[in-house]
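The methods section describes the discrete structure representation at length, but only in general terms. Each protein is reduced to its one-letter sequence and a matching series of backbone shape codes. I believe one specimen quoted in the main text would settle the matter. An entry of this sort, consisting of the sequence and the corresponding backbone structure tokens, reads as follows.
***
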Amino acid sequence: MARWIPAALEADRWETPTARTLVLSIPGWAGHRPGQHVDVRLTAEDGYTAERSYSIASASAPERLELTVQLAPGGEVSPYLVRDFAVGDQVEVRGPLGGWFVWDTAEPDPVVLIGGGSGVVPLTSMVRERRRTGSKALFRVLYSLRTPDDRYYRSELKPTTGPGVDVFLAYTRTAPEGSVRGAKRLSVADLNTHGFPAEFAPVCFVCGPTGFVETVADALVALGHDPRRIRTERYGSGGER
């Protein structure tokens, strides 16, 4: 099992009013595979500890990583990380963890990334790792979110992300003014239109709340995608596993 190591907050930025990206400095950190996660542990003065798992948002890099944490009201860890964790403060992390929900940068196959809410975090790590490594694999990203105010990574996840990466934003509660699609749940038609067709044999990564993941995975199978090429990751409140 990976050991716990100290991580200091180097910088931060707000993605939404309730979601904060944490840039952590971790001496000795060797990097990670895109799609992996870490455990984060807090220790109180009386010795009480609480830990949660969070997906890594950044591309692989030595001695640093980024996490994006969504506030979970009533949670033990996310309220501190979102509201109180200050630059210079330390937590403990353990990882990187996970070997199934990861993208192999050496694979040339097309990739479909489908994220619901904060499920877009590990998928963004894959997009960033593609850019870092210069991979030529074609990416299509389908990002389901409630409202424009809930959107993470605004400067990166947009229709003009870059050559080889197409992004589709599906708003479910409130759509931006002038939206032709309007506000509705991600549909089979959306998956068929904005993902790769099954005959292209893409690798599909689906991350989000359990209901979202199950619905999307079933729709992909109905569209003819090989279940063995559909990888899923589910999370609880606040993006915590």
Remarks:
- The chain has two domains: 5-97, 111-239.
- The longest helix spans residues 120-133.
